[in-house]
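Troubleshooting: if your tokenizer reports a length mismatch, compare your output against this known-good record of 292 residues.
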Amino acid sequence: SMAFQVAEVGLFALVIALSMLTSGIDLSIVSVANLSAIVTAKVFVATGATNGGIGALLLGVAAGLLVGAVCGLVNGLIITRLNVSPILATLGTMQLFNGIAVGWTNGEAVYGMPPAFLALGSGTVFGVPTPFIVFVAVAALIGVLIARSGLGFRIRMSGANEVASRFAGVPTRAVLVKAYLLCGLIAAVAGMVVSARTASANADYGQSYVLLAIVIAVLGGTDPNGGRTSIPGVALAAIVLQMVASGFNLLGLSQFTYQIAQGVILIAVMGLATLTGRLHWRRILARPFSGP
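Known-good structure output:
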């Protein structure tokens, strides 16, 4: 049960980690995901994908990914060309994309997805839930991209020190645009996983995932100031917090209690990171102990 549920918030946390790596943040992830899912569902209905046509299925998935990429591109261009801070830019596009989705559907859910697509949210492969496989695959690809590719190196450089990177010849604006375009693609995948699990697409799904994704990204080792992240750590943090959420449910605690726990965890992790940075624990532990 946890493996089915962790994929959604885990994918959103990967987007937050990637955007934080650039010394920014993407608050529009849920709106991008829902809009991509709605476009996918609309294409399914218009092309008759419910009858089992593989071409219509691929067309719907491609359309959803394209919408996610376009949304990410819009975020990147607003940040780099208009010099708007990432938090304000993505806050504005969050409202923009959500307004488009609500206006297009009149706030109603879109149904009519083919069984092959629904398997993405509820199927299994050799006993392993398909959403969890998608989450692990995306995390592995992003981890390799950040650690082993030239684009990943430039993203880390730009996030650590944009001015120095620019003087070193790194095209920081192009790097940021590519990073946010990638964020849009991952958000689109997350939206498809959510819609496949619920068998519908709606503009209101997953509105509480943004804060949780931020908590997971920071807990997993992502520096909000940019330049450093750990994709395996983010994946592990997503699994741990999903276990905490399931434990709260088993204990009969309310959802509001879990929200309080999220806030406490975020403050505690940020406070501990700041404290250890100021006190230099490695130096303290390296000091010889002198008795009273």
